[in-house]
Amino acid sequence: MKRYFDIYRSMMKLSILEQWQYPVANYFYMIGMIAEPVIYMVVWSTVAMQQGGAVGGYTPAEFAAYYIVWTLVRNMNVVFTPYGWEWRIREGQLSMSLMRPFHPIHTDVAYFAGWKIVVIILWLPLAFALTLIFKPDLNPTFVEIVVFFFAIWFAYLIRTMTLSLIGMVTFWTTRVSALFELYFAAELILSGRLVPLSLMPEWIQNFAWFFPFRWAFGFPIESLVGNMTTNELLTGLGMQIAWIVVGLIFVNIMWKFAIRKFSAVGG
Amino acid sequence: MKGFQLAFNYLRIGILNEFQYRANLYIQILQTFIALATGLIGLQLVFSQTTDLGGWTQPELLAVMGVFTLIGGVIRSAIQPNMERLMEEIREGTLDYALTKPADAQLLVSIRDFRLWQLVDVITGFIILIIALSQMNWSINAWSVLGFLSTIVMGSIMIYSFWLIITSTAFWFVRVHEIANLFEGLYAAGRWPIDIYPNWLKYGLTFLVPVAFAISVPSEALTGRLTLQTWLGALALTIFLFILSRTIWKIGLRNYSGASA
Fold this sequence. Notes:
The complex is a heterodimer.
Chain A: H1 2-20, H2 23-50, H3 60-76, H4 82-90, H5 94-99, H6 104-134, H7 142-168, H8 177-190, H9 202-208, H10 213-216, H11 218-225, H12 230-261
Chain B: H1 2-18, H2 23-47, H3 58-92, H4 96-99, H5 105-111, H6 119-135, H7 142-168, H8 177-187, H9 199-208, H10 211-222, H11 228-255
Helix pairs in contact in B: 2-3, 3-6, 3-7, 3-10, 7-10, 7-11
């Protein structure tokens, strides 16, 4: 246990130092990311205004709150991508990580967790600017803030698990980009990234229950923005933990079979 | 004349090159299909709540989506690959090889790459456009066709000039990949009518990043919204951006000192 704690601490320290060197590049990346929610926000605010002030229970100010919190959750959702796995496997980069006396996934989790700390610090002024421009309606209670804090980190872990699973498919075939694209499209629709899930038709909302997507995206946002009961908030956290456990089990099983398939191409 | 011949030769080589990787065509078709499906779902969601968005009806916005897909295909097949290669070569110092060739350097760096399979998007865009126009009970009108074709060409030139300006900044700042990423984010704004955006964003999308002129103006031509003023404005902006991009490219080139070779 102490050993893992040390590994995590040093990896996180390393990534914070590394990423702090590129604030401008990190900023451009974040600003590029912000274009997407701003577009959704404007479109839905326009619809809400045309419909007499609200659509699906959201007023323009509530859409603003949803999509500003969206930007933080989206940043928390950035993990080692399946394309990274593809590169890592194709180029034989994995050989090096395999030499270390612990599972390579620990390196990913720790590295990106450290990066998140830099990202959150850089995100604060952006959120402030967006708040001034779009005037969101956001009054979270203390409980909601606490739940949100845990929910974004759980979301990070869920997405790490799911994207690692998808990425590991590269152990069997190197033609994976189509699969990745399909996955991302399903995620866009079913996670609450495109629109709050409550605006979706009933059957899509029910359908979304069977996937991890909403727990990694829509739930953290709604925990802060929406008016969820304490019961709903706890159920959400429970679902998140359940998906993390399921993800962990699957990653471990898949890894066992996958690693036998690995033959370094280079590196 | 010689320029056209050169462009044609590069195009031929580019196409031959793409034919080596035919399986990519199927991947491209799948990707186009996914992008189309998510786009249509977004449109459907909006129009399940309202009958018009900023004065545009569903078939009209479908036409906008057609133009968006079409121009996106042009960008990804002809403009973006060349500019990304240029960025890479400025950084690596291998631009020397292009500069020593006896042709205009700007022409040369703009025609070297061509991604044939991306034309799937251009074709798909056209099909969406035809479906949208038939839903609108559109009757063929020579003026709107001419307006549409001319604004599509102008829009493509504007986007090209914009990309060249951004890419030329690589002569000074080495890391510009993030700016390319920023462009992609802003380009997505072109899916929706430009009038719904708040003013600062509207002007930004019109003059800083010419997304409005590339997508909205051709769509306006098709839906009978184009005025002569807008058309003349587009023409003026096209000429201005083209000259500006050439100037910045020339200044940048003077700044270039081959790092290797």
